[in-house]
């Protein structure tokens, strides 16, 4: 679902539109390509609210500055000081240059009229050279400092984004709005603080130029100063308006861009290539991508054209004012009220004030636009992880026994009405092995996720050795659990790394890794690889070995066995294993799980019956719980499913 999908659909088709909202597909795979955007905050229409909004955005932008300055300082104090010094100097240079030009012209006139010497002219030219050289050097320093800062700041921010993302709760990654925010923070935001800083420094530099120039202008003609001041305002207004629209479009485009990225990955990633080819989906996906791209381009085109046409039209007003000023000065010179040097100075000053004012506005609207992106970054960085340690976490017992108790646990995934678990109560004694069974969607994996505290129950509680899981530090709790999930990860690394990552403390402990591989039944295959445990797995490597599905599953199992914990959780551990490998694993599991509380999910009843107790879930509720014999004798749901499968085997 895109954020506000249903509302958005209503906006597109109307309340009693051509199609009922629920039939509007927003996956991007079929249906209209003009995927509606989430609602953009309304543009204020009347002057008063526009002014109020401007005040808010100025305040917001200014408030954003200290954070950015801090980031820049953190990235490099030396470069920050350097760039600040150069800014002040380069702010003054245009005024100095203009003043030197005036003196030079006046000296030339004086020399012509035999009131001065050529020596004066040489000196002034030397000064002029100095000022021009300083301008060139300061601009070079700015470029160098900026690109170095850019590198460092991008690294700092990407680090922060990664560090924060690694702390966030699982549900955050599963919501589409938060996913968009994460995408913005990871891709757009890293370059923004420096742009913001550059704009802010530009603002300071321009202010210095502006103040010194205006001082010159006011002393000669206040009217001239006023006209130069007012002319560029319209250009600013249009800039700030389109700046915010550009942000919204990039942000809002996320849903459409996300679908484009997905379509592109369907065609360009090895993972999907087989199916895409078999079903002949390639050209279809390419065509969908093209259509979505067209919509995205059209929206971007409209904005770019409007933004630039408006800016240029308003900018013409400023040009007109500039020409009027030039005429005024020229007439004054003809009238003999100004010297030739004054004429040069005023022309330079007036032009400079005008460019400064529009520069000020441009810098400010740049800051405003960057600030909107930064807001997203800060909002992301400000998102509190929902699964956190309590203020005073209870220390884990020195030996965790693995006594698990669910007390009327209910759970609904965020944004869903239907509970995935409903009033679930059961108990597992320390060291016991329990198989969890049930139809697809019954809530089995959810149960495991709650036990690992990837989510917290909506109601009820889960106890480990008599203590509510929420009283422990979740990270400490997870060190007590080894788990293999249904959708395990296949790391693009060596076989040893793939297993070693299961226990960071023993990442390079080769004998232990080999033992874990033996436990999972992966050792023979790894030994047969070209470089044994050091063989790279996966296609990212030139010499990477492609493993079969079952072989990968054994590696993932070995990773789970790498940790020696009191609780072992396996979500369909043998779904990809052959019959022999499955049999071997379950034979070993008896030894492997001795003294550990073990839970596994399986749809194969031959393995399920080997568990000490069996928990049957049905529509998120505990339907049956007991030994195989008890449940068979009860002739309930378990007995029915068991017989169904057994009969199929016996023909
Ligand atoms: N991340 C999620 N967000 C929202 N709903 C979810 C999420 N994961 C699972 N669900 C829903 O919760 C219910 C239980 O899912 P769960 O994965 O626990 O089922 P399961 O019993 O493990 O199924 P299977 O045997 O197919 O693996 C399902 O109806 C599913 O649609």
From TrEMBL:
Compositionally biased spans, kind Low complexity: 1-12
Mode of membrane association: Multi-pass membrane protein
Ranges where the ABC transporter domain occurs: 404-644
Family that this chain belongs to: Belongs to the ABC transporter superfamily. Siderophore-Fe(3+) uptake transporter (SIUT) (TC 3.A.1.21) family.
UniProt protein name: ATP-binding cassette subfamily B protein
Domain of life the protein comes from: Bacteria
Record localization: Cell inner membrane
Sequence intervals crossing the membrane: 78-101, 121-145, 202-227, 309-331
Ranges for region Disordered: 1-45
One Pfam match: ABC_tran
Residues of the ABC transmembrane type-1 domain: 81-369
Comp. bias regions, Basic and acidic residues: 36-45
UniProt keyword annotations, A-Z: ATP-binding, Cell inner membrane, Cell membrane, Membrane, Nucleotide-binding, Transmembrane, Transmembrane helix, Transport
InterPro entries xrefs: AAA+_ATPase, ABC1_TM_dom, ABC1_TM_sf, ABC_transporter-like_ATP-bd, ABC_transporter-like_CS, P-loop_NTPase, Type_1_exporter
CDD domains associated with the record: ABC_6TM_exporters
GO CC term, one of those recorded: plasma membrane
GO molecular function, one term: ATP binding
